[in-house]
Amino acid sequence: MSARGPHDAGRFHDAGRFHDAYGKVMAKWPTGTESVTVPTPFGETQVHLTGPADGHPLVLLPGGGAATSASWYAQAAELSRTHRVHAVDLIGAPGRSTPAGDRHPRTVADLAGWLDALLDGLGIAETDLGGHSYGAWIALHHALHAPGRVRRLFLLDPTQCFAGFKAAYLLRALPMLLRPTPRRVRAFLEWETGAAPLDADWLALQEAAVGFPGRRPVTGPRPAPQALRALDVPVLLLLAGNSRTHDAARVAARARTLLPHVETEILPDVSHHALPQSAPPGLGRRLGDFLTGPAG
After folding, report:
1. Bridge-partner residues for 239, per DSSP?
2. Residue 2's closest CA among 180, 161, 158?
3. Can you tell me the distance from the alpha carbon of 93 to that of 253, in angstroms, rounded to the nearest whole number?
4. How far is Cα 92 from Cα 229, in angstroms, rounded to an integer?
5. Measured distance CA(281)–CA(287) in Å, rounded
6. Peptide bond before 213: cis, by omega within 30 degrees of 0?
7. pTM of the full predicted structure?
């Protein structure tokens, strides 16, 4: 979750520190992981690739803010056993993707166009698609926009898809969003995760991203109920049982009333911001089983 805009660029940002921290998290990825830069109308997008070259494609979208594609390291090895994993740095967010001047996504339609162009650039006609938090919001919107390009969809504690944020979460996040500092970022994450142990390198990346010269993220209403009811794509919805972001049970119940092909599960003992990097054991296998299981 981020509300920083261009006016915040450079307030605290140390580019060298950020890229060093990013590299330390990427070092946790499987040996042989490759990185490519894909041109799109909205700028160059960084994608990390791992898994068999002939594996079915799986595109992973991270949460907003400083989550970055690197955050999928804890699931990358399991998911890449059967899939060619493509983990994406969101355009305009902290990471190694580079927006094209003033032409960055400003609407949901722009995000759909960016992701379409990215898939085209990667040579992917149809893909499995997954996202966490804000990345899950983008993934769901893209599945609604181009269901023929999405074979299966998983949503990991998605925000603004089926329910809004808790008021307490927004109040806690506001000081960090308005005047971000490394100390405020750490304090917010410690509060949301219940002071659960977090990977030190991942936490250093969140702190190093303060002041990153990014763009204001695209936001918008939740997907329309009639569009969700018409989505003919298998969906796995996994929710953080300890999330302070929203009410997990309410999100699951709402999704079951709207999506015709959805499996829901609440993951115990994990919070929103601990995902996906500090996920419960077996999350990668649960995702893999869904992606490789029988249709229907």
Report:
1. 266
2. 180
3. 31
4. 31
5. 12
6. no
7. 0.93
